[in-house]
Sequence to fold (96 residues):
Amino acid sequence: MPKSNRRRRKAGKRKLTPEAKRQKKANKKEFQTVFLNGKQKRVRRAPTIDGLPVDEFIARNADPIWLLQNGYYERLEERSREDEHEPRRPRDASIE
Fold:
């Protein structure tokens, strides 16, 4: 039997369909890979706003009224304590 000159195709990874690519991208946004007990596990990512954890974003950007309306009384108390401990700026002598 004569040998054929055709090359055999290597069995490799198949390309993902556009739908599979979209699903993979969405999964990467929703989950992250971490190591637990020497094994890789996929866990949901912590929610973020502009790349900051939600609690930190609220602490930086919320005003006292919003904190009160949404029941963040602890944060409101923390803020008032921080304001008490800030040194007062001396008045300008030229204004008197």
